[in-house]
Structure formats: C-alpha cells, structure tokens
C-alpha cells in the first residue's frame, strides 16, 4: 500500500504537467478565469480521490479531462439543452448550396471563406458554439485527442463524437459564410432555379449578341 | 467508396482515424473524383485554420500551488467543493442562482438519504445475490457489476461473520449492501460511491478514521469514506459499540 504522502506525490507528478491544458479547457467551458481555476482545483481533488480507479499505463490526460468535463457538466448541464432546438435549423440548405457550387465551380468562394479577414471571426465563433459541439471540437482540434478518447471523456459513443465534430465544424463554416455575406465578401449562392434561369438567359444573351 | 461516404467520413479521414484499408479506399476515390477532392482540400484547409486559431491558454502562475494545497487539505476533509459553480459570470447569473439554490436544497434533502436507506435495508430481510464469509468472493462478484471497488470491511472478533451481499441502488447510483452477523446481531454495511452523496450528523473518531453518526428508530448508522469508497454501517447496537466495531475494521 502507498502511504498518503507518496500517493499524493505520485498523483501530483502525473497530473500537474497537464495543468495548462486542463485550465485551458476549463476556461473554455466556464468562460470565466476564476471559475476556471476553481473548476480545475475541484476536478483535481476529485480525480485524486478516485486515483485508485485510474488504470496505470492508460492515458492520464484523457482521464483527467474526463473528470473535468464531468465535474463541469454535473453542475451546469441543465442549462444547456435549450440550445439543441435552435441548432437543428442552424445548418440550413444555403450553406450546402454554397459548398457544392464552389466545389463545382472552382475554389473562389472557398478562398473568400478562408481569407484572413473572415477568419478573424473564427475564434469568437468557436466560443459561441453550443456546448456539446464546442467540447468535441476543442478536444479534437486543440488537444488532439483521438475519437475514442473524446468518446471516453464526453461519455458518449464514437459515432456521436463523429457527428458532433461534423456538425460543430459545419456550424463554424456556416457562420463564417454568413459573416462573409454580411461583409460583402461573398454574394449569396444562387438557388438551383436561379442557376438554371440565369445560365439560360446568359446563354441567350450571348447568342443574341453573337 | 462513394461520394456520399466521402462526405460522411471526411473528418474521420482528415483526423487520422482511418485505418490503412479505409485510407487507401478514400485515396482511390479522391484521386478519381474532382469534386470530392476539392471538398477534402477545403475541409483540410479549414481544419488547419481552425487549429491555428485555437491557442491554448496557459494556467495562471498561482494555480499549481493552489492545486497542491487543495489536494493536501482534501486529505483532511473529504468532499468535493463546488465553489466555482456559485460564482458564475453575470450573463449566466440568473440561471446559475436558480441552479445553485436547487443544488443546495436537493443536497439538504439528500443528506439523510444514505442513512434512511441503510436503516430501511437493514430492517428488511431481503434475499442476497451472493452468500459466503469471504470478502474476496464478494469483491470478485461485484468487480464487473459496480463502478467502484467493493471491499467489505472485516470486523474483528470470533463472532463477527460476513453473511453475503446484494446489489442495490442509492437513488440513481448503484450501491452494494453487505450483511454481517456480529455477536448474534445483524450488522448491515452499505458500500457506495461517495461522490455527490452528502452525509450529515455529528463527527466521531473511530480509531484512525472520522465517522459521522446518526441514529433513528432504535438503529444507529455510522458513515465514513475509505480509499475513495463510502461506507454506511447500520445496526441496533448502541453507538459506542458500533464505533468500536468500525474502529477495528481495516
């Protein structure tokens, strides 16, 4: 059996190197520096109490993130379900059309979307993402966890991780697209009908002029 | 692989989740399909800019020390503090205050849940899932059934014997009920995950450990945590006899 002091030192040695990462995640979850500090502290105290459950040799960083995310969710989860409904309408067909049109017609629209001016907006939009998508995106794109680890941390199946990542990134793209439209960097993608009519008119005009 | 599947799995491919075979299949498709190739390039670039826009925020200088201190004091006083939850930013303040009050109220009401349930289970003679006097057998039996280690306490004395155990619930959490016979009297031990299970009652010293005592309906219950697991020991013994029993249990 470990002595108490030895046990604590082992835990500290394992956990403290991940303090920055844990704090970064806590800050993004709570959006408040003091709360983030408290959340990290509480999570680590909790993790320490359950340290015997941690299997040596498995990924301690993922395990600590799991405790952090759980500690956060257990307290504020109730607030977050309301986002769900808003979200269903979020990914609408406009962006789909834009994406397929730009895929078909070369990359001009994509260049606009990935332009520095538009991208300034990206950081703020990540913060605005609904909780479940934000967590998945951050765990994948900032902390480089595998899908399996993210599933473990968030307590959901890998399939759910995949769809949250897909939809989370998609929402970000769509909001950048909207921003680019508002700023006049982009013109709205024509609908299927407009596309047909417009090209027919153009064709006739060309024909007429010729 | 078809275009539809490329769309579906594009992120898994870019995030390096594909195995060799899957990777080869999508590569073959991308090499032959211009739209999918552009689509993949776009997602790849988007992923890169997303990654570069997400900068890690380093922890404040004092946090490490605070954590180390919090770990030390947690050994003296177990129980998670949730100070941060009561200190939400103004934007979320209204919802948070309501949430906070709820937590407190539920907490108060639940503080006696473990004791009430222990006494309730102690009084009823319910069938056991596993019988026998070996703590190891019981520990093994529950090893794949509950998400915490079940180590039945071993009470000293010739006439202290483990009878058996069964799976039960403490509200929505799983718990294990263990039955003993000590000097001809029934002793029940509830083993549970103490996380989020508040206990109240005056504190007593039972050998090396601090326990909380509550008595009602002629029964006494001592609750304590050991090695991250919660225990509630119930009997019709008087409190001092129960304290003595618990103080010698490893």
Report what the structure shows:
Chain A is built from 12 helices and no strands. Chain A has 210 residues and is mainly α. In chain A, helix 4 packs across helix 10 and helix 9 packs across helix 11. Chain B is α+β, with helices and mostly antiparallel strands and 250 residues long. Chain B has 3 domains: 51 residues; 30 residues, no CATH class; 137 residues, MucB/RseB, C-terminal domain (Phosphorylase Kinase, domain 1). In chain B, strands 1-2-3-4-8-7-6-5 form an 8-stranded antiparallel beta sheet, with helices on both faces. In chain B, a hairpin with a 2-residue loop joins strand 2 and strand 3. At the A-B interface, helix 1, helix 2, helix 3, helix 4 and helix 6 of A face helix 3, helix 4 and helix 5 of B.
Question: Descriptors for this entry?
Answer:
A: 210 residues; Arc Repressor Mutant, subunit A; B: 250 residues; alpha+beta; Phosphorylase Kinase, domain 1; 3 domains; 8-stranded antiparallel sheet; 23% strand; elongated
Under the CATH scheme, which architecture of the largest domain in chain B would be assigned? 2-Layer Sandwich
How many helices of chain B? The count is: 8
Question: Can you summarize the main beta sheet of chain A?
Answer: none
The low-confidence parts of chain B are 78-109
What global shape of chain B is seen?
elongated
Structural domain tally of chain A? 2
Look at the structure and name the CATH superfamily of the largest domain in chain A: Winged helix-like DNA-binding domain superfamily/Winged helix DNA-binding domain
- Give the rounded overall mean pLDDT of chain B: 78
CATH 2nd-level architecture of the largest domain in chain A: Orthogonal Bundle
User: In which range does the helix fraction of chain B lie?
Assistant: 40-55%
Q: What's the CATH superfamily of the largest domain in chain B, by name?
A: MucB/RseB, C-terminal domain
Largest sheet of chain B: 8 strands, antiparallel
How many distinct helices of chain A?
12
CATH class of the largest domain in chain B: Alpha Beta
**Gyration radius of chain B, in Å:** 27 Å
Greatest interface and its residue counts? Answer: A-B, 68 and 55 residues
